[in-house]
Amino acid sequence: MKKLPPVALFGIVGLAFILVGLLQSWTLAITILNDGLIVAIMALGVNMQWGYAGLFNIGVAGFFALGGLAVALVSQPVDPAAWAAGTPRILMALVFGAAVIWAGVQTYNRMAAGRLRTLAMLVLLVGGFFLFRAIYDSAANAVEALTPAATGNIGGLGLPVVLSWLVGGLLAAVAAWGVAKTALGLRSDYLAIATLGIGQILIAVMKNEDWLDRGVKNITNVGRWPVPYEVDLQQNAAFIARAKAWGMDPQTLSTIWVGLCFTALFTVVLLVLLVLMELALKSPWGRMMRAIRDNEIAAEAMGKDVKRRHLQIFVLGSAVIGVAGAMFVMLHGLLAPTSYDDPLRYTFLIWAMVILGGSGNNWGSVLGALIIMLMWDEAEGMGQFLASHLDMLPSVISGNAAVSKWVVDNAVYTRLPVIGLVLLLVLRFSPRGLIPEK
Amino acid sequence: MTFLIGEKMTGGYGPVDILHDCTLAVDKGQIAVIVGPNGAGKSTAMKAVFGMLKLRGGQVRLDGEDITALSPQDRVAKGMAFVPQTHNIFTSMTVEENLEMGAYLRRDDIKGTMEQVYHLFPILKQKRRQPAGELSGGQRQQVAVGRALMTQPKVLMLDEPTAGVSPIVMDELFDRIIEVARTGISILMVEQNARQALNIADMGYVLVQGANRYTDTGEALMADPDVRKTFLGG
Amino acid sequence: MVDFLNAIVALLNYVIVPATSYGAQLALGALGVTLIYGILRFSNFAHGDTMAFGTAITILVTWLFQSWGIGFGPLPTALLALPFGIAVTALLLLGTDRMVYRFYRRQKAAPVILVIVSMGVMFIMNGLVRFVIGVQEQNFADGARFVITATQFRNLTGLDEGLAVRTSTVITVVTAVIVVAALFWFLNKTRSGKSMRAFSDNEDLALLSGINPERVVMITWLLVAALATTAGVLYGLDKSFKPFTYYQLLLPIFASAVVGGLGNPVGAILGGFVVAFSEVTFTYAWKKVLTYLLPASLAPDSLVQLLSTDYKFAVSFAILVVVLLFKPTGLLKGKSV
Fold first, then answer.
1. Can you give the residue ranges of every domain in chain A?
2. How far apart are alpha carbons B24 and B34 in whole angstroms?
3. If contacts are CB pairs under 8 Å, which of residues 17-46 in chain C contact chain A?
4. Which residues of A fall within a CB distance of 8 Å from C318?
5. Which of residues 38-97 of B touch C (CB under 8 A)?
6. Which chain C residue has the Cα nearest residue A409?
7. Which of A173, B62, B222, C270 has the fewest CB atoms within 10 Å, measured from its CB?
């Protein structure tokens, strides 16, 4: 199959976005683009792990969620009541928990295998668990009891939300380090399923620990500086005047303007990451990574520390996913831990992007992300669109109320088989993706 | 009368040929042994005869019939059996199940053949309910040979059957192989222990770099001073 | 003494009985995953959706039977519909294999490619299920709800604690025992079953023995269709059917298969029960049982719940990680490709 040059492919995708803007609405086009930029960054992270190093991480959703958590922790206002009620004790409990685990690892490594070691481990871990719960439960309950309808969590640091991008990356990196330490020694499918599991555990924690992020009650007060709020713009005299001058109503213009601000911010982050990753890929480090991926045994024989390199790239890739997670929460102004509990959307969809774009190629990942996101989000409005254009459908469908209702109701789900089909077709007929690795 | 012959075989796994005009043949009920230095293409030649390697030139004939184009599975159905050098048993299955799997293609009663195998390798009868993976190295090789015999083959091909077994077990195995040949089965085998193998061989092939270097009866090769000096260690 | 009996009954009612039936459902699901891994050598991410599909078809047939007035007495009609669900699922799986997986098998593609391919299949099946039956929750259990209710049990024994035995629990356990027994009989006693084990053990040697790989693969998909549909229907009878829940079931099922050792059928069953029992014991509030057992002065005032029930799936994965740390290929040596 003859391949189009990358520029042409990006051109086609750009054209598709413009078509969405012209035919549907610019608000929608920008919404999809912003979502697309975020998943593009996620795809870069996955591509780093899979494309550069061949690591099969399907715990993407977990790291993405952790990035979102960082937004809450960084940007929420400081909550003195929570600090007084139990925040320090919770932190103490967490430090204690970490210490128990560390002690457990030390015991396991230092003591000779045998019944004594098993016993020591049991006493340490079980005892540690109950002690941890003793400190932790009362503190967590105390925090959660504070104005549960409004806060009921430890609050944040009251810092600018943009900082949370870094913190999100850092949180994800730390978690990834833990995952890598425990799971990277595993082989093939065992590693994949372990990452899936750990990702789900991270999400379970975020869903259930109300003191941390209000769990199912969600967090909305996350801030979005430097991006302005629509309501503020709509009340700004200069802005209203400009809208008038352009012949637009202020409300629409404010939405578009805010969207474009996000677009600009995200594009900068994406480009910086892309440049860094391309430089890394072409550096000796990147060449070594690919050498390891292509032949682990040979690389090991040549004295490369494969395990260390894998750990490095797993942490880096997860950090990138974490950054995207923070941006996502900032964009939507909402941290909804429950929403992450869908690996199809937050893990496997990202994989589809990387495969479609071309494993190992950063530009490919970005392209794949934009295409898939466009398909995914467009399907969202399919039902509505069909409902208002029923007369366009064959009479078999439009003539029968039950059938047409079924079609309208199910239209959104067409995106699942369509994306599955795209994935299968790419794997079959163009396994190196739209922009193959050089 | 040549029963199985791989004639002027040329080919390899990739673009580079490993075999060059290599010819191997075995008569009915006889033992042919392939020896040669490491990397001479001995195992490759065996695989070529069994159809596990695409040939660019030459042909393989069984009982006069050209079987060059047949897959290994089809060759099994034609009466050829192959014992690979490693991974040649089903480790998680019992000895008896291994033998049953050997006879997978047969639809008739296999009890008789199984008794013959047990007669040939009595230890297997004792251990028939044990997983084959728990047996010793020599016993595993017996299972491997037994499995191959279950198809009632006309030709038995063995890739280094004595690799990794003790000298006593090796002698024992060679005795059994002679016994198998006496029942009319042709045997083509690759051997690392050239001296002992040529001792029991009717025909010997010395391969070097994928080509025939010396071809003669086992006895004659043993007697050839050149062969002795270069390949049999004096 | 009565306290002790009460404690036992409470334990049975809240821990052992539910965990046993959940474990049996997980075991059946994990058996499917493990068979695919053993024969086709990849983790099938579409397995949860396969279960959902089989169950959805069974539910449709159940509704059809119900509309015709066909019932199964005290047993759920779904059991009558089950064979039809299995048959349709088998067709779907064989069709998928023919159109998708076979190509990669012939190419001798790396196992990880097949895993990614199964993700694509997962997307398609996930959508398919929603088209077939929608996203809503469906309750399709009919027939008698209880073999014995808690009240009946209390009246019968005079104990304070009741032990309710639901029909679905009994059906789950009985069906699971029958299915597993049939499966092991097939694998260990029949020529086809043995050829499957041989193929799983040593593919090259199986080929040398004349075993036809396509036949083995076909039998595998048929077994998987039966196992997945049965597991799905039993789970649905016990709880309820919802596509998203079934999709999520993939997680504890994978955990079970991996904990037991991928490719090892006995391991899958063991894994299913290990995961089910740990999920239930870690999230059960032990207060009641302990109150019966301990002297009044020591009676706990908290719930004595190790983890909140929301951590159910997290527990199965924590178990998975811990097992893999000490046994990298599962409790009973699994395969690793």
1. 6-78+155-429, 79-154
2. 8
3. 37, 42-43, 45
4. 197, 201
5. 72-73, 76-77, 81-82, 84, 87-93, 97
6. C134
7. B222
- Using a CB–CB cutoff of 8 Å, tell me whether C88 touches chain A: no
Q: Are B27 and B203 in contact (CB under 8 A)?
A: yes
CA-to-CA separations, A418 to A314, A411, A432, C123, C126, in angstroms, rounded:
30, 11, 19, 8, 11
Contact, C62 vs C81, CB < 8 A?
yes
CA B7 from chain centre, in angstroms, equals: 17
3-state class of C108 per DSSP? coil
Q: Which residues of B9-43 are buried (b: 16+ CB within 10 A; e: fewer)?
A: bbbbeeeebbbbebbbbbeebbbbbbbbeeebbbb
Residue A186's pLDDT is: 84
Q: Are C50 and C129 in contact (CB under 8 A)?
A: no
Instruction: Report the amino acid identity of residue C268.
Output: A
Neighbour subunits, C (≥3 Cβ pairs < 8 A): A, B
Contacts of A46 (CB under 8 A, 6+ apart): A57, A60, A317, A321, A350, A351, A353, A354, A365
Q: Which CATH number is C153's domain given?
A: 1.10.3470
Q: Residue C104 carries which side chain, given as an amino acid letter?
A: Y
Q: How far is A423 from chain C (nearest CA, A)?
A: 6
Neighbours of B (≥3 Cβ pairs closer than 8 A)? C
Pairing between β-strand B203-208 and β-strand B31-35 as defined by DSSP bridges = parallel
Chain A from 409 to 428: CB within 8 A of any C CB: 409-410, 413-421, 423-424, 427-428
Residue C31 lies in a domain: yes
Q: Above 60 in pLDDT, residue C177?
A: yes
The structure tokens 């009891």 sit at: A145
Note the pLDDT tens digit of each residue in A354-408.
999 999 999 999 999 999 999 999 888 787 787 788 777 787 777 788 888 888 8
Tell whether the model's pLDDT for residue C25 goes beyond 70. yes
* Torsion angles phi and psi, residue C329, rounded to 5: -120, 35
Q: For chain C, how many structural domains are there in total?
A: 1
φ, ψ for residue B203, nearest 5 deg: -135, 140
C331: in domain: no
Average pLDDT over residues C112-116: 94
Is the pLDDT reported for residue B53 higher than 50? yes
Nearest to A214 by CA among A157, A168, A158, A153: A153
Asked if A182 lies within 8 A of C122 by C-beta distance, the reply is no
Q: Is residue C112 part of a domain?
A: yes
pLDDT at C185 over 90: yes
Give the length of chain B.
Answer: 234
| Among candidates C191, C207, C212 on the partner chain, residue whose Cβ is nearest the Cβ of B72 | C207
- The Cα A396–Cα C222 span in angstroms is 36
pLDDT at A1: 47
Kindly give the pairing relationship between strand B155-159 and strand B80-83: parallel
The whole-angstrom separation of Cα C130 and Cα B24 is 62
Distance CA C147, CA C138 (A): 22
Q: Phi, psi at residue B155, to the nearest 5°?
A: -130, 135
Domain residues for C36?
2-326
DSSP assignment of C21-48: HHHHHHHHHHHHHHHHHHHH-S--TTHH
Question: What is the reported pLDDT for B234?
Answer: 61
Q: Which residue has the higher pLDDT, A332 or C308?
A: A332
Would you state the pLDDT for residue C159?
87
Residue bearing tokens 């009919």: C142
Q: What DSSP designation does C179 have?
A: H
Q: Which domains does chain B have, with CATH numbers?
A: 2-79+153-231 (3.40.50.300), 87-152 (no CATH)
Does residue C337 lie in a domain region? no
| Residues of chain A where predicted confidence (pLDDT) is lower than 50 | 1
The whole-number average pLDDT for the span C33-42 is 95
For C215-259, how does the pLDDT look when each residue is reduced to its tens digit (9 = 90+)? 999 999 999 999 999 999 999 999 999 999 999 999 999 999 999
